[in-house]
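Incident review: delayed structure delivery

Summary: a single-chain prediction request sat in the queue longer than the usual turnaround. Root cause was a stuck worker, restarted by the on-call engineer. No data loss occurred. The affected request and its eventual output are reproduced below so the record is complete for anyone auditing the incident later.

Affected input:
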Amino acid sequence: MAPRNFWKGYLKLSLVTCPVQMRPATTEADKVKFHTLNRKTKNRIAAVYVDAVTGKPVEEEQQVKGYEKGENDYVTLEDDELDAVALESTRTIDIESFVPADGVEWIYYDKPHYLMPDGEVGEEAFAVIRDAMARTETVGISRLVMYRRERAVMLQPRGKGIILWTLRYGDEVRDPKQYFSNVEEVKPDKKLVDLVHKLIEDKTKPWSPNMVDDPIQDKLLDLVAQKKKGRKVVARAKDEADEGQGSNVVSIMDALKASIASGRRKKS
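Output delivered after worker restart:
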């Protein structure tokens, strides 16, 4: 079954406009999900917003967003006031600018979506924008209201379509200098680097989605199946930490040589 349309609107570049549709490129639909239940009644537990002081439930119409300006002192904001600062159009991806394809650091990438023409009418205009970005090795930058908030987005040509990435805002990305500034500048031994190079070569293989399979999924499904049959599942004892692990390694050099030798034995 084809996935449902997640979003429909228009892709716009200057005076060129075409209808498009968008779908999330990833899904968690097949993930094992659990509900929180009342252990005694087996009824599901519902989340209820309560007043932090009185402990009484608060009806939805009485809930309002607040910005803390001081201790227990808030500025309240109504929905129509928040809408006033949002984008005028939530249905148009207006490409504002282009940047080199390798100019956006990976840390800004958030969620990928597939963008494609919506009907034959817009196919040519869509293809022109897509192919022009591919030829110039650029990506488009725009803004769009998604997931109930305004987001910066990046349009990346890929095959017959376009990948639309939501981007993290600048204030969401932490400066790496704050974390790496205290790391000592160490120039490693060239022989050690050569050995790691060799280890990398031995372990290099073509990319496959199987490399990122979730091994816990199958175990959870097996656990559920056993519980359905009324079987008692015995919890596995936790492995004790091997405190002596690595204590017999004389040096990094010996460890790397042993790693390479082990890899060769597995291949043979």
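Verification: The longest strand covers residues 149-158.
Action items: add queue-age alerting; document worker restart procedure.
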